[in-house]
Structure formats: C-alpha cells, structure tokens
Amino acid sequence: MLKFVSRDRETPQKRNPGDRRQDFDEIYLRFVDQKAQEQASRCSQCGVPFCQNHCPLGNDIPDWLKLVTEGRMEEAYAVSSATNNMPEICGRICPQDRLCEGSCVIEQSGHGTVTIGSVEQYITETAWENGWIKPLTPSRERPQSVGIIGAGPGGLAAAEELRREGFQVKVYDRYDRTGGLLVYGIPNFKLEKDVVARRTKYLEDSGVEFVRNFDVGRDATFADLRKEHDAIVVATGVYKARDLACPGAGNKGVIAALDYLTASNRVGLGDSVPRYDSGELDAKDKNIVVIGGGDTAMDCVRTAVRQGAKSVTCLYRRDRANMPGSVRETANAEEEGVIFEWLASPKAVRGDAAKANGIRISRMELGVPDESGRRSPVEIPGAEFDQDADLIIKALGFEPEDHPAMFGEPELKTTARGTLRVNPTTLETSIPGVYAAGDIVRGASLVVWAIVDGRQVAAAITKRFTAAEARPIAAE
Q1: Which end of the chain is least crowded, N or C, by CB within 10 Å?
Q2: What is the set of domains in the chain, with CATH numbers?
Q3: What is the top-level taxon of the source organism (predicted)?
C-alpha cells in the first residue's frame, strides 16, 4: 500500500471519442488485474477514511482496496457487497468525483485520487466471472410477504435485503423490464443493460417475484395490494418532468428528456418505437439544444451525438463551476463534440405550434446567493442571441406524481414538495405498514441514495416483524 507517491493515478483505458460517437457501447474498458492492483495500492489507508465517510452507503473502501492489492479478490467482493446491493452499477454510474473520490485524502495532497469506482466495478465483475455470486438462501422462510411498488434501484435493494431475511417478496412495476431508470433512463454508454438484467436474474433466482406491466389503479388498487401483503414499500421514483417556462414551450419539437432517453434505450433493446421511427425522438441530422445542467442533460447530449445529430448544444443558466452534473460526464461530452453555452437561459422558442425552428437565449450573470447558498442567475438586459434548433430537449429535473390521487389513498400524506412524508428513522409513511424509499422520498437524487433507502426500509420492516414475533403471548 501507500504507493501514491511513486505511482500515478490511472483510469481504465477510455475509447477514442471518434469511435465512441459511432455506437452506444460503454466508453471505459475494464481494468486488467495488474492495473487494478496497482491503482488499489495507491490508497493511503487513512486512519479516518474520508472516502468512506463521503460514500452514502458507508462502503468500507480502504478495506477492499487493500484486499485487491493482496490479490484476495473473493474477500474483496464479500466486503464490497456487504454494504452495497449493486456495486457493479455504482462503480459505473456513481459521480465518484463528487463523493468518494472527491474526498480522497491523497487527492487533497495533490497526488490524484485513487480510482475507487473503477476498482469497485472490477471487483464485482471478477466475482460474477468466477461464480462467487450465488442466489440467496435465507436461513429460514418467514410467512410475511412484502409488496414493493417500483423496480428501480431503491425497490431492488429493498427486495434483496428483505429476501435475505426470508420474507416473501413481490415487486410490481409499470414497465415491461425490471430496473426502472437503470434500464430506460441511463444510456448504454454508461450502463449496458445486460448488467441490470444479470442483477435481476440473481434476484429472481433468489426467490423474488416480479410482476411487470403493472399499474396501481389499473391492474389492482392500492387497497388490494395492502390486503395481499403484510407490508408495502413505495419505490416509484419521480417521473413528472419540470416544464419550460417561456413562450413557445408547447411547440412541436420541444420534448421531455425522459421521453427522449426512453425511446433511445428501447430502440437499443430492439423495441419498435413509432415516435422514434417518425423522427420525432431521433436526433439524426438535426440541430439539438438540451436545456439543463445535471446528469440527465449529459445523457441527452451524448445520446444525440451518437444518433448522428448535426450539432449538439447544452444551455445552462449558471457557470461551469456551479453545474450540478458530474465533472467527468461534462468532460466526456466535450470530448465527443458537445458545445456548452454557460450562463445562458432560454427566453423563447422560435417557430410555431407545428414546428420549433430555433431558440432565443438570454445571457445571464450570477447574483446574490439563493436559499440553497448558490448564486442566483440574473438576466443581462439586452444580451440575447438566437440559436438554430430542430429539437429542444428539456432536462430540467423531475417532480413527484400525485401519489394520493394515483393510489386512491388520501391518507397517504405528502410534503410541500409532493414527496411522500415518512418517519426519517423507519421510512414508514402516514399509513401504518406502508413504507417508501428512494426519489419518492428524497426528490430526484442519485442511484446510490435510493439503494441506501432500500436497505434502510428493509431493516425497519425486519425489525418490526422480528419484534412482533418476540412478544410474549398473553395468558388466556
């Protein structure tokens, strides 16, 4: 260990931008054994591991880095998977530059962070290849069943933890494939879909039952599900797109990011997508403008490049330093030819209801901090310019759907933001026996935080039923 002084930081080899633009394959190659061990050996084995403290899951990062260095790969996987239900997915899509790697002590000393995410992915892929990942075999089967609404990362993490404890678990999802945004929201160049399918099969082989193409209210009421199960977990995520607030926002050619990404992912999976086939959701030979500065915006611009767009521009109302998305993803987009217009905000969509043909943009400057502490963007009077655009993609974030109305449950209380109100310790909602996890509690957030919630809610349900079993039976 402690080789950071003599050994430089290296990431896995990254494919050439010109090649990347031609397909949707993942852009990073996998570490070979020697390189993974070399990079893991750079860890300084801090007494207070800031990387672990800044990982939402509290992963024991220094421990599994040390095990990789020593070639003890099966043990490394055991340590990695003890706190994370999807390490191969987090290793690919977590914004490590904002979390573990961004807090690495040797990074702060100027030596360059340990490539934690890439080593994490390497560990789990090695485990899959060697057959170390076996279906769960609970020590005992419990009679209680838990219904989980939503098969995204929060729901899947909860399902695994509950099944590990012997609960009978059934997961309901509105989509025809399991994974939620992991399948339909995140492009292949960041997360190939067979990685998600492999994790789903592991859960099925472990005894988790999946019910796909299922809508609460259409296929069964929420009350029906509550009668069928001893506990319910709501892990639906947030899917309602924030709208564009300017003249022309309703013109044809202005589309939501999730519609665009879902169409692209479905085409990649071999599905027929009429809106894509018609050109409505296809960027080929078009001038594309994406509005937003988060990871979803980066997914959109990089997808448009691969679809053969004539030009791709990203508008963000603040500057680069205040962009909420991953620095790494922004750099990847720039390498692939995306143009960024910083301090730029849409003022009006040009064209008419039948067709958008451009966008008028206001130049912005940063003013005083808002309630979040970030400096607010302020329009510069008279500083406007026009941009050609055949397709304008709104990547402005997501808000919760109206779950009390959707589920026909007025007793399901929400916060002022529309997220479900929960007990912060147990994640139980206002309805006893109904829990919630992931974005529907936090608002739009990271996959890793959804996994945190899934584990937390499973622990709370387990504790509840274990305590009930331990209660003495009253004397007759």
Answers
A1: C
A2: 17-129 (1.10.1060.10), 145-238+400-470 (3.50.50.60), 243-397 (3.50.50.60)
A3: Bacteria
Say how far apart CA 116 and CA 43 lie, in whole Å: 9
Identify the band that residue 358 occupies on the pLDDT scale cut at 50, 70 and 90.
very high
Query: How far from 132 is each of 196, 236, 345, CA to CA, in Å?
Result: 18, 31, 50
Q: Three-class SS of residue 363?
A: strand
pLDDT one-digit tens code per residue, 455-472: 999 999 999 999 988 765
CA gap 407, 400 in Å, rounded: 13
> SS3 of 195, please?
helix
**Could you identify the residue written with the tokens 């387990």?**
462
Range scoring the smallest mean pLDDT among 109-123, 377-391, 407-421? 109-123
Q: Is the pLDDT of residue 80 over 90?
A: yes
What does the pLDDT read at residue 66?
Answer: 96
The pLDDT, as a whole number, for residue 31 is 78
Cβ within 8 Å of residue 6, ≥6 positions away? none
Please state, in angstroms and rounded to a whole number, the distance separating the CA atoms of residues 419 and 440: 5
Query: Burial code of 307-335, b = ≥16 C-beta within 10 A, e = fewer?
Result: bebebbbbbbbbeeeebebbebbbebbeb
Other residues' Cβ atoms within 10 Å of the Cβ of residue 137: 10
| Alpha helix positions (H), 103-208 | 105-108, 116-129, 153-164, 181-184, 193-205
- Are 415 and 409 in contact by the 8 Å Cβ rule? The answer is no
Helices 33-40 and 61-69, packing angle to 10 deg: 130
pTM higher than the cut 0.90: yes
